[in-house]
Structures are given as C-alpha cells and as structure tokens.
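Dear colleague,

As promised, here are the two records you asked about, laid out in our usual form so they can be pasted straight into your sheet.

NAME FIELD: protein one
SEQUENCE, THEN STRUCTURE:
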Amino acid sequence: MTEARITHVGGPTTLIEAAGWRLLTDPTFDPPGRRYSFGLGTSSRKTAGPALEAAELPPLDAVLLTHDHHADNLDTAGRALLPGVGTVLTTPSGAGRLGGNARGLGAWTTWRLESPGRPTIEVTATPARHGPPLSRPLVGEVTGFALRWEGQRHGALWITGDTVLCAGVRKVARRIDVGTVLLHLGGVRFPLTGPVRYTMTAAPALELCAQLRPHTVLPVHYEGWSHFQEGLEGIEAELGRAPADLRARFRRLTPGVPLELPV
C-alpha cells in the first residue's frame, strides 16, 4: 500500500512526500505580525509563523499554488522560493502574473509530473469559488488540485483550495474517487463585508465529506491569520455532532510534525 508523508508547515502550507516526489502547497513563510492588504479595503494580520523555515525544506519538485494574489496563500518569503522549484502549478491568471516556471491549469485540466524512476503524478485542477456567487471578479481565481498516481489504494489526494461549498466543489465527489482531503477551512469573513464568507466552516465541510466519503480528512488553513472566524475549537465542536463514521475520518495535523498515512 502506498504511503504519503504530510507535514503541516502552517496555514495552507503543507509538504507532501509521496511516490518519491516532494510537493509543497501554498508557500507561506513570513514571520507573524505583519498586516497584508487583500483588496477592496480588506486586510488581515498574520498571527503565527511557520513551523519550518523555507531554508529547512528539502529540495522540491513542484509547488501547488491554489492562488497567488492573497498573502495567506503566497507571502513574500513563499514567493521568493518559487524560482528554485521545478514547476509551479496554479490558476491560468496566476501563471500569467508569475511567469517563469508557473503553469496555469483551468478546471478539470491535468498536468503530468514525470521523472525517470518515479511514478507519474497526474495533477488535475478542480473548481473552487473563494466567496459568494458572482464574486470571482472581486476575489479572483482559485483552484484545487487532485493528485493521482499508480499504487494508490484509497483514491486521489485532493487539496480543496480556499473555497466555499458550491456546485463546482460538489462535482469533485461525482467525478473523482477521493481518498485523502487537505481541507481548507476557517470560515473567512471581513468586517467590511459583514456575514459574507469566503471559505468553508466545518458544517458545510462535513456535508461535502459525507458526499466524498474519503479515507482521511486533514483540516488546514483555519489558524494563523486574523481573518479566520472558526478555529480548531469550533471545528472540533462541529465534529462532535457528526456521525461517528464520518468523525473517524478526520485526523489532526500538528505543525512541523510529519504524519504518515496510507493513500
């Protein structure tokens, strides 16, 4: 059975080591304390630093960047490491902004990571919507990624990206056999836009996971920034109300501590 080793660096940033590959999601390595603009008069302060520094990372084969235009998914230090990576997969608009080694994937398109002596990883971009209906012109383009390679027993490894529960995200459950989910949560809200949410809370995430029925669910991106409205306590409270078989699929990642799991 194929094993994967996943290390949560902090926020959305994880190091995925599987099938001889090393992949990094959404690089964020700035120290805490700085406030960043998110556009349209909104901002957020980083409240926690990374569990690992960028210099402590092993050589990386690729970066999976769900979007490049918000600092909680790509900050200054994270941006600095991109040129040293073989391939950066991101949204089409993000690839246009980044240039160089960035490659843009539209929803449901696939990129193959290939190297002699290692199984090919098929990376399929999945839909995401970073806010309410019709918000994309304001909040920008976001993607998720589903990773498949030979030898997986439970199904694809899916990174949801920053998204609310929407029709495009639900399609993943119908089109892809998902085994492991890196689930972006946090229930992002800003004072300027009131009750509008820009990422999932635990309640809609549990609804999604009930459709997916994955082997393992790994929540990420719910802490470390002032714009998150639902942290670990709220997530665990919602989990406590979930059916036991669904609750048992969730695993907690401890920042900086690798977790080995079957995939």
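NAME FIELD: protein two
SEQUENCE, THEN STRUCTURE:
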Amino acid sequence: MYTLYYIQEACSLAVNTVLRELDQEVTLIRADNLSEFSVVNPAQQVPVLIDGDEKLFEGAAIMLHLTSKHPSYLFPTEQGPARRRAVEQLLFANATMHPAYSRLFFVARVMESGSVRQQLFEAAAKEINRLWGQVESQLQSQPFLGGQQASVADILLAVYSRWGAAFGVDIIIPPRTAHMIEAVTSMPGFVAALQAEQAQGV
C-alpha cells in the first residue's frame, strides 16, 4: 500500500496513473487541503509518495522507483538501448516539457492582466508548440514514445497536455501526438486515477 500526496490535475496525476497501471493500492491525500504540507515536503511540491518507511519526492524519480520495484511494460528494466531511450524520454518530459508549461503558471502568478502578460503567455506557448513538434517527429513510426505501448513519458506528456487550456493561448497538438494522448487518457489506470482524484472533492 502506498500513500500519494497530490493536487488535482498536477503532475502527481501521472504517478497516480502509474500506480494503478501497476495494480498497486494507493491512498490519496490532497496536498492543497493540508495546512501543514510543508512538514511533508518543505518544497511544498507534489507528488510525494510514501512507501513504507520511505518518503520519495520528484515525479520522475518516483516513477523510476515504482517501475523498478514492479516491472511492467511502462519502463524497460534491463540495461541497454531501450532503457537508455526510455530514460531520455522521461527526462525530456520532466525536465524540458514540464518547465515550458511551468512558464505559463509563473506568468499567471506574477503578472497583472494586460498586453505584456499576454505576450509572455504567447512566447511560452510558442516554445511549447515547438516541443510538441519534437514529440510528433518521434511518433512517425510508432504510436507511443516507448514504442507499441505507452511509457511513463507518454503518461507525463498526456498530463501536461491538459494544462494549456487555462491560459487563453493557442497550443497546437499535432495529429499523431493527439492520438497518443487520447490513447493514454483512455487507459484504465489514467481514467481510474482521474476519477479517484475528482472524488476527493474540493
């Protein structure tokens, strides 16, 4: 049994999905409803995973931990080219695409409404669109970044793709990428994770 601290629709949704795809039981605790979440994680970021006596931070590290502990199609466990590519794709999602979307949240938080704010939104969206184009180029001969089945990187990207609509900018998801995202968001683990988070309420 795991315990996952989450915020609705945040990147913790990807960890929640991975847990369910691995058939692992999880208790959810909504972090933004806790007055003392800084005690759990001084950085006040989700996800945080409790695994027995261990407390794990950072979504990519948590997913590597889970897929090593519970081997599955989501991530190659044997050393070799497939695992190296999977690590590269995971880090692209976590360290390149995620920060690109984070710029939208940062601008929304620190800038007053107005033309400069919108220009910054549009500049961030331009970079996000460039990165989605990079994803599209990797899907020319396979349905997922991981090949014929979804990987943890695909799950992360599907979660991020849901964030752009809140900012009034044109984020363009190319057709193969859109198909990949649709396939990921239809996975039983993703559907169950989303429903479980929504059931927690506000």
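A couple of things worth noting about protein two: The two ends are 24 Å apart (CA to CA). The longest strand covers residues 2-6.

Best,
R.
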